[in-house]
Amino acid sequence: MITPSRYLVGCASLLLASIAMPAEDDQAPTPKVQRLDNERPERVLFVGNSYLYYNDSLHNHVKRIAEEIGPHGPSEYQYKSATISGSRLAHHDIDSLVEPGRLGVEEPFELVVLQAGSRETLTKQNRAEFRAQAAEHAEKIRARGAEVALYMTHAYVEPHAQYDPGMLDKIRQTYVAVGNDLEALVIPVGLAFERAYRERPEFALHETFDGTHPNMLGTYLAACVVYQSVYGQSVIDIEYDYFGEVDKTSAKFLQRIADETVREFFSRDP
């Protein structure tokens, strides 16, 4: 089942070559950054679109997992999410978002997770603009003292009009290439979706009406992947189930998928 600033215009021609798609028989790229320097961030900002805000917002679920199993006490986390429907990275005013106090968090964020638009990996021009905008955002984020992570999106599934069985290959190649170039952590959410579908093709992680947005199970899986990628602690056997909204059997399956995906992607334990 399986706009841009002058900076972008000036860099686009060079960047096209830097993230050209490798040949199909090339080995899948491996991430340069295996872990964050700070695996205990308390102040985290998510920046993206509806992929994040569907189903009570991804940041809430990641925060609740962290409140359950650490590394800090439940009252110590300050998570924020800045989302724009249908947005690309270029639509977000990062200068404003990372300014201390602007979003009600007085101290600087320690980690900013960037989620690009779902179409930003599909063409050479889009990939060039994605890389350039991610680089521009990363520079501003790091100037405030935060680390940067890239949220690897999932692929479309049927009935989406642009469903393409090879879409995830483009997503993976692009996110890992950009992450490596920027020395940013890549969070392999899209790979977890693929693993789940490969193991259980009938298991739905997308909304059936559009084949693009995550349903509640998709968001739960994404939250598990984000938590384990960021904090380096396994999500196996966590109790969090969104207040009973995620059935225990599905939760256990998705926890395992997240754990296996993160371990394999980073070649780390966990």
Fold blueprint:
Blueprint: H1 6-18, E1 43-48, H2 50-53, H3 58-69, E2 78-83, H4 94-97, E3 111-114, H5 124-143, E4 147-151, H6 167-182, E5 185-187, H7 189-199, H8 216-231, H9 248-266
Parallel strand pairs: 1-2, 1-3, 3-4, 4-5
Question: How many alpha or pi helices?
Answer: 9
Strand content: 5-15%
Domain unit count: 1
For the largest sheet, list the strands in their spatial order.
Answer: 2-1-3-4-5
Described by the principal axes of the CA atoms, the overall outline is globular
CATH architecture, by name, is 3-Layer(aba) Sandwich
Distance between the termini: 28 Å
Helical content (DSSP H or I, runs of 4+): 40-55%
Order of helices and strands: HEHHEHEHEHEHHH
Radius of gyration: 17 Å
- How would you characterize the largest beta sheet? 5 strands, parallel
| Model regions low in confidence, pLDDT < 50 over at least 5 residues | 1-25
Tally the beta strands: 5
Overall pLDDT metric: 91
The CATH topology annotation reads as Rossmann fold
CATH homologous superfamily designation? SGNH hydrolase
CATH domain class: Alpha Beta
Judged by helices, strands and strand pairing, the structural class is alpha/beta
Model description:
This protein is of the alpha/beta class. It has one domain: 3-Layer(aba) Sandwich (Rossmann fold). 43% of the residues lie in helices and 9% in strands. The chain has a five-stranded parallel β-sheet with strand order 2-1-3-4-5, sandwiched between helices. Strand 4, helix 6 and strand 5 form a beta-alpha-beta unit. Helix 3 crosses helix 8 and helix 8 packs across helix 9. It is globular, with a radius of gyration of 17 Å. The N terminus is likely disordered.
